[in-house]
Write a structure and sequence with these properties.
3-stranded mixed β-sheet; CBS-domain; 2 domains; repeat; 34% helix; 5-stranded mixed β-sheet; 14 helices
Length: 386
């Protein structure tokens, strides 16, 4: 795996050529399907034997937002505490009211961006908007209301993972019952990253047996064919992956986030080489700066406002192993990997660094647990290359 620093991390830093340092996958000469499947079954048994409580860090903070808060104050709270989501609580009825996520902010931007241009809505109206009205925005936009997910902390990690996958959620609120008050109480939030890191820390022996490569295991979303040299107007040569360029307006990418329910869009050049990622969390910075009034700025301009401590774009090859990926999750915070062509593809006439696919934590969790989204077939491990 490699971590490629973004060329647009800070407007004050001179742009340097991109460097890609890769760690080997340590694939054996003849990966064993039998040992791979045995390791998967052992990991799943481990998850069934552990509860959500077991995955809690030794020390953590829980940020809970009252639905009466304005969006402006809620965002200030998130930024101050370094988080991008938080449970919502209806204090009038003393009940859990769902989660505030970056996607809610995306929907809010879409709604007010158009409303400011068509009706008499001001910046003050946006900043005074209350969290309790977020569901009204979803109805106006015609997007699905997220399910009111929750699970008990004593539930098995396997059941928690299954619920995350079946509902396409990235985080799961954990609620218990307070016998003194007779009300539910929010205990914590289990994220996909926390769950996968727990596996990576506790299943070293099993992970060492996961040698089959990512493409053969069908983990992630891959470009369906080689990009056309001259795609017709309106075609996306990297279908089904949504992409953008440095000159793409930010609002076009915001629309991609909402339309496809995704959290990042690769920024590529004319040859399909990955230059950067634009993420939903980047939009929070723009909202904080009041830039929802001028989202016609380009991605290149928006990236100049990104924090200089952005960790960079994490890349991998389709020939890397699942075990290597899980070892990376163990070592550092990872939310997604961009699959690019490497030296091996370049020798076959490809373009080094060109976009091949994207692997999200949902993809990894879905495969490792064997859980499936509603209506999807169960993913099966594929035979290794001869």
């Amino acid at each position: 795996m490699s971590s490629t620093l973004s060329p647009s991390n800070s407007p004050k830093v001179r742009r340097k050529p991109s460097t890609r340092r890769r760690a080997g996958s340590h694939l054996p000469a003849h990966p064993s399907q039998e040992s791979h499947d045995r390791a998967l079954n052992a990991i799943r048994a481990f998850l069934r034997s552990r509860t959500a409580y077991d995955a809690f860090p030794v020390s953590f903070r829980l940020i809970v937002l009252d639905t009466k808060l304005t969006v402006k104050r809620a965002l200030q709270c998130l930024l101050l505490n370094g988080v991008v989501s938080a449970p919502l609580w209806n204090s009038e009825e003393s009940r859990f009211a769902g989660m505030l996520t970056v996607l809610d902010i995306i929907h809010l931007i879409q709604y007010f961006y158009h409303s400011m241009a068509s009706v008499n809505i001001t910046s003050a109206d946006v900043e005074a908007f209350r969290l309790e009205s977020l569901r009204d925005i979803e109805r106006e936009l015609g997007v699905a209301t997220p399910p009111l997910l929750r699970e008990n902390p004593s539930s098995s990690l396997f059941d928690c993972a299954k619920l995350l996958i079946q509902t396409h959620a990235r985080r799961l609120p954990l609620l218990d019952y307070d016998t003194d008050t007779g009300h539910e109480t929010i205990v914590s939030v289990l994220t996909q990253y926390r769950l996968l890191k727990f596996i990576a820390i506790n299943c070293d022996k099993e992970i060492a047996q996961l040698h089959l490569n990512l493409r053969k295991l069908k983990i992630g979303t891959f470009v369906t064919g080689l990009p056309s040299a001259e795609p017709s107007e309106g075609d996306n040569p990297y279908n089904p992956i949504a992409t953008a360029g440095l000159k793409t307006p930010v609002f076009d990418v915001v629309h991609m986030f909402s339309k496809h329910s995704i959290s990042a869009v690769p920024i590529i050049d004319d040859n399909g080489v990955v230059l950067n990622l634009y993420e939903t969390v980047d939009v929070i910075t723009l909202v904080r700066l009041g830039a929802y009034q001028s989202l016609d700025l380009t991605i290149e301009e928006a990236l100049k406002q990104r924090s200089p401590d952005f960790p960079g774009v994490i890349t991998c090859s389709a020939s890397d192993s699942l075990g290597t990926l899980l070892q990376l999750i163990k070592k550092r915070r990872v939310h997604r990997l961009v699959v690019v062509e490497g030296e091996e593809e370049e020798r076959r006439g490809g373009k080094k660094g060109r976009l091949v696919g994207i692997i999200t934590l949902s993809d990894v969790l879905r495969y490792v647990t064997g859980a499936v989204s509603i209506g999807e077939p169960i993913p099966q491990a594929q035979e290794p290359d001869e």
